[in-house]
Amino acid sequence: QVQLQESGPGLVKPSQTLSLSCTVSGGSISSDDYYWSWIRQPPGRGLEWIGYIYYSGSTYYNPSLKSRVSISVDTSKNQFSLKLRSVTAADTAVYFCARVGWNDGKFDPWGQGTLVTVSS
Amino acid sequence: QSALTQPASVSGSPGQSITISCTGTTTDVGGYNYVSWYQQHPGKAPKLLISEVSHRPSGVPDRFSGSKSGNTASLTISGLQAEDEADYYCSSSTSANTVIFGGGTKLTVL
Lengths: 120, 110
Description:
The complex is a heterodimer.
Chain A: E1 3-7, E2 11-12, E3 18-25, E4 34-41, E5 48-53, E6 59-61, E7 69-74, E8 79-84, E9 93-101, E10 107-110, E11 114-118
Chain B: E1 9-12, E2 18-23, E3 35-40, E4 47-50, E5 64-69, E6 72-77, E7 86-93, E8 99-101, E9 105-109
Parallel strand pairs in B: 1-9
Antiparallel strand pairs in B: 2-6, 3-4, 3-7, 5-6, 7-8, 7-9
């Protein structure tokens, strides 16, 4: 079955750019049926949708993060990536990647998540 | 976009039933049937429980059910079990082709 795995630095300095990748295994990222999404969860708080990308490169972002975020896809590596610019302590969170059905909106499966701390 | 509104906490005794509400607007919950529910245990990734308002994926016990009326979706758990103690989140697609999550509900099994 399809599995997703996040990777990237666990510590980022304030004002710098947070960069994460999500590797998809057990299936192709180039499927017509799915978007590929990033979601985050600050410690002790709820889930926040960051955005998603279609394999063609079409992207959709949370309006509250749109000015700082970009999501890209590398079909040759079966990966998609997140960049969040000008981070502050408020961006400290567990970052999850997930597959999203384009015709049902369901997030399934999810990666295990990776904690990113913003601190000097 | 503001989070969908969920109660912060609910509780119930083993064997009882509980319902968690998820209230949005006509541009999300009320306008689309792309409402999903997720269960999250501490330190774990969320797990899909319900999609498209009331569809239960294979492997999810039939104790979990979903419904929607107007701008409010609901998750009902019947026959509560100790392992149901977790955080629960709803999500909905929106008219802007974005996604919005609920604030989350902590379920305590007494």
